[in-house]
């Protein structure tokens, strides 16, 4: 299975889909989120936190100045937002390899800012803005990630 797409018609639905994915992830998982401002990436991360059993997920937000937030759940969630990262040098200074594939689940907003080319083994979610309340989510992944996506697709079509 190469991947699948789903249309979300509300923020609640996007959060629910994130939750379903969070429930399937094990430590070491990496999720790369791509899409314009307002496309729903942070909304999805809130759901991912729900699915990992994180209780303080009302605090999940796109950090203004802090680029990495850490939340405690079934496994730690490292929430990274590269919106404010301008170049390769700044990216290097973040030492993201300390988080990625480590002791928790890592999710990266604006993952297309120069980091994907140096990584492999991740689930990619591309968000497209359709209209005020509708977003298209395109899921793809390689290797082991395909099994997770197959299960996610089944769960998403059930509810
Ligand atoms: N189907 C939807 N999924 C996600 N967000 C939606 C949806 N419809 C409307 N929205 C709104 O779009 C905005 C998405 O914001 P956010 O998740 O912070 O985006 P991003 O992190 O991609 O910049 C929120 O204000 C949310 O209420
Ligand atoms: Mg965001």
Explain what this protein looks like in three dimensions:
The protein has 159 residues and is α/β, with parallel strands linked by helices. It has a single domain, classed as Rossmann fold. The protein contains four helices and seven strands; from the N terminus they run E-H-E-H-E-E-H-E-E-E-H. The chain has helices at residues 11-24, 41-51, 88-93, 145-158; strands spanning 3-8, 30-34, 68-71, 77-81, 105-109, 123-131, 134-141. Helix 1 packs across helix 2 (41-51). The radius of gyration is 14 Å and the shape is globular. The site of adenosine-5'-diphosphate has 19 residues, from helix 1, helix 2 and strand 7.
**β-sheet strand percentage:** 25-35%
Bound molecules: adenosine-5'-diphosphate, magnesium ion
Q: What low-confidence regions span 5 or more consecutive residues with pLDDT below 50? A: none
Helix content: 25-40%
Work out the helix count. 4
What's this entry about, in short?
With 159 residues, the protein is of the alpha/beta class. The protein has helices spanning 11-24, 41-51, 88-93, 145-158; strands at residues 3-8, 30-34, 68-71, 77-81, 105-109, 123-131, 134-141.
């Amino acid at each position: 299975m190469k991947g699948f797409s789903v249309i979300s018609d509300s923020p609640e639905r996007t959060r629910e889909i994130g939750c379903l994915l969070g429930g399937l992830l094990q430590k070491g998982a990496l999720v790369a989120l791509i899409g314009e401002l307002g496309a729903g990436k942070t909304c999805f991360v809130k759901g991912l936190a729900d699915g990992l059993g994180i209780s303080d997920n009302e605090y999940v937000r796109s950090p203004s100045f802090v680029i990495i937030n850490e939340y405690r759940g079934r496994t730690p969630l490292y929430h990274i937002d590269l919106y404010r990262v301008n170049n390769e040098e700044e990216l290097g200074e973040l030492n993201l390899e300390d988080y990625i594939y480590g002791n928790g689940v890592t999710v990266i907003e604006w993952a297309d800012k120069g980091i994907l080319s140096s990584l492999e083994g991740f689930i990619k979610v591309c968000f497209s803005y359709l209209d005020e309340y509708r977003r298209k989510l395109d899921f793809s992944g390689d290797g082991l990630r395909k099994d997770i996506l197959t299960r996610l697709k089944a769960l998403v079509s059930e509810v």
